[in-house]
Write a structure and sequence with these properties.
GO terms for molecular function: acyltransferase activity. It comes from Microbaculum marinisediminis. With 209 residues, this protein is α/β, with parallel strands linked by helices. The chain has helices spanning 10-16, 45-71, 84-93, 123-134, 163-177, 195-200; strands at 24-26, 97-103, 110-121, 152-159, 183-185, 207-208.
């Protein structure tokens, strides 16, 4: 992930044009495989296997899209391949990396527009995050179990090609995930989105770390 990759998206072009940009779909897609699959009749084994295969393929594709997005962000270009495990895979599997998609203007196909990185942590992990921020560590490094270890909500990053797109994504994701909650905001986010939207995060407003 050390090489720079210049990418532009239909979503970025939409935010800069006079036309109304395509709507964003915020949030992770649900895994089509449910716990009841394990109790399925033997005759349904093939269908269950197919559903699992489709789920794995969809997750792998989403992971690739997120990695491609990170490659366009200067703040992530120094990261090594081995960092994807704790930086992307762990939060993605725990529903703490909310992705937003938009329809391409020409094809109509959904494409990744950006992502919002969050964590719901314990008091101990909260202290660790604050210490890393004070030390200038970025991105914040968490263990797999840390991402959903408690009820303290952190907004760690908003990843998008432009500030307008980042602002739209955060606005939509916050309505779905942060309504009425106190949200602690990583200082880096302040420069990525409009201040008015940032103040609205968490209902009555997010709290800067």
């Amino acid at each position: 992930m050390s090489e720079s990759t210049n990418r532009t998206t239909e979503s970025a072009n939409a935010s800069n044009g006079a036309d109304k940009p395509p709507p964003l779909d915020a949030g992770l897609e649900a895994d089509p495989v449910t716990e009841t699959d394990a109790d399925s009749a033997p005759g349904d084994a093939a269908a269950v296997a197919e559903k699992r295969s489709e789920a794995v393929a969809a997750f792998t594709a989403r992971l690739g899209e997120v990695v491609a997005l990170l490659m366009t962000m200067p703040r992530y270009r120094h990261m090594a391949l081995q960092d994807l495990d704790w930086m992307v895979l762990a939060p993605l599997m725990r529903d703490q990396l909310a992705v937003a998609t938009a329809n391409a203007r020409e094809s109509g196909a959904k494409q990744l527009a950006g992502a919002v990185l969050t964590a719901r942590v314990s008091e101990a992990v909260d202290v660790s995050i604050r210490e890393q921020i004070k030390a200038g560590v970025f991105p914040v490094r968490l263990k797999p179990g840390d991402w959903t270890s408690g009820e303290i909500v952190w907004l760690l990053d908003v990843i998008a090609p432009t500030k307008p797109i980042a602002t739209r994504i955060l606005s939509e994701v916050s309505r779905a995930r942060f309504k009425g909650q106190k949200v602690l905001v990583h200082p880096i986010v302040a420069g990525l989105v409009d201040k008015d939207v940032l103040r609205k995060v968490g209902g009555e407003g997010g709290e800067a770390a």
